[in-house]
Amino acid sequence: MREIITLKWEKGNLLLLDQTLLPNTVTYATCKTLEDVYQAIQTMIVRGAPAIGVSAGYGMVLAANAFDGTDTAAFMDFYREQGEYLKSSRPTAVNLMWAVDRMVERAEALTGEGQPLEAVRKGLEAEAVAIHEEDKQTNRNIGTNLLSLLKDGDTVLTHCNAGSLATSEYGTALSVFYMAQEKGMNIKAFADETRPRLQGANLTAFELVEHGVDVTLICDNMAAVVLSQGKINALIVGCDRVAANGDTANKIGTFSVSVLANQFHVPVYIAAPTTTIDMECPTGNEIPIEERSREEVLRINGEYIAPKEVKTYNLAFDVTPAEYITAIVTEKGIVYPPFRDNLEILMKK
């Protein structure tokens, strides 16, 4: 079994597993500047809300290191500007905004204490490392909470990739398989391929095979069949943002699979670090949805599969209404409806 690490902080540089080349090539992209991190997020070298958040933390360290000067007021103006720029790399994942804001707040606190810039830079690096370590523990806690909802021998359907490749360690939705392995339980997986970027095929199938999990890959349009055949005991997916009412944004196609799961009385569990819960966003209607390049739909592995001239509509995410969600599983506990009330209680813990 190979050790596949999504991101590393080494000697002042951020190393990111290039997920655009998986499953055939395992190589790392080196980010030495904030611009490098911006491009890595935008081009999906790194993807998955938690991994984007951790990468943003380190990106803000690189931004601090790039400032040329000694004036702390000028530094803060520069730092806030760099943060807003990094936030624009992808609009849907709230972890990106959260991590940038946390780093800016830490910089404000350190400069407010009268710390020299060298001490500020060291403090910001320590903050980014803390974000990284917190994400690792969050992964394990979510996996433990998800496992409490399953029994030995169950089979889980998942969509897109919310595993170790999307986070710092075990992942969110896929953490349940790794925690099951630790406890000697046998939890099997079915993975949708997840068009148009095929994250389920290229990433989820790749990492589950690497970790020795029993996984079956299916075409996206087979989900209804396997659910109707009684092969699936639970649908578990990750998320990029949870609104205050429980509406959840995740990779395009999640909404469809959640509707199918409800049709066949299969529970739908959202694996959600509390950093993805946005209590300032009232409902899913207010979640910004990224629209990506038409080339993602028109090509597979560089080859056109449709006429070049045809129009496309390529939303990267959709929103699953709260009514289709059985529970939202976080590192702090499991949240059941009514979501608005119970999420508010959870976020105050």
Q: What's the number of extended β-strand segments?
A: 16
Q: What value does the Rg take, in angstroms?
A: 20 Å
Physical arrangement of strands within the biggest beta sheet: 6-5-4-7-10-15-16
Tell me the number of structural domains: 2
Please name the CATH architecture of the largest domain: 3-Layer(aba) Sandwich
Please summarize the sheet with the most strands: 7 strands, mixed
Give unreliable regions as ranges.
none
- Please, what is the average pLDDT? 96
CATH superfamily of the largest domain, please?
Translation initiation factor eif-2b, domain 2
**Cα-to-Cα separation, first versus last residue:** 38 Å
The helix-and-strand class reads alpha/beta
> How much of the polypeptide forms β-strand, as a percent range?
15-25%
Written overview of the protein:
- Pathway: Amino-acid biosynthesis; L-methionine biosynthesis via salvage pathway; L-methionine from S-methyl-5-thio-alpha-D-ribose 1-phosphate: step 1/6.
- InterPro entries: IF-2B-related (IPR000649), IF-M1Pi (IPR005251), IF_2B-like_C (IPR042529), Initiation_fac_2B_a/b/d (IPR011559), M1Pi_N (IPR027363), NagB/RpiA_transferase-like (IPR037171).
- Substrate binds at residues 47-49, 90, 199, 250-251.
- It is an enzyme of class 5 (isomerase).
- Belongs to the EIF-2B alpha/beta/delta subunits family. MtnA subfamily.
- This protein is of the alpha/beta class and 349 residues long.
- The protein has two domains: 7-139, Four Helix Bundle (Hemerythrin (Met), subunit A), CATH 1.20.120; 146-347, Translation initiation factor eif-2b, domain 2 (Rossmann fold), CATH 3.40.50.10470.
- It is 41% helix and 16% strand.
- It has eleven helices and 16 strands.
- The chain has helices spanning 34-42, 49-66, 72-87, 94-112, 117-147, 175-182, 199-210, 223-228, 254-263, 295-298, 339-347; strands spanning 7-10, 13-17, 28-31, 155-158, 188-192, 215-218, 234-237, 241-243, 248-251, 268-271, 277-278, 299-300, 303-304, 317-320, 327-329, 334-335.
- The strands form four sheets. A seven-stranded mixed β-sheet has the order 6-5-4-7-10-15-16. It has a four-stranded mixed β-sheet with strand order 11-8-9-14, with helices on one face. A three-stranded antiparallel β-sheet has the order 1-2-3, with helices on one face.
- Helix 7 (199-210) links the parallel strand 5 and strand 6 (215-218).
- Helix 3 packs antiparallel against helix 4 (94-112), helix 4 (94-112) packs antiparallel against helix 5 and helix 5 (117-147) packs across helix 6 (175-182).
- The radius of gyration is 20 Å and the shape is globular.
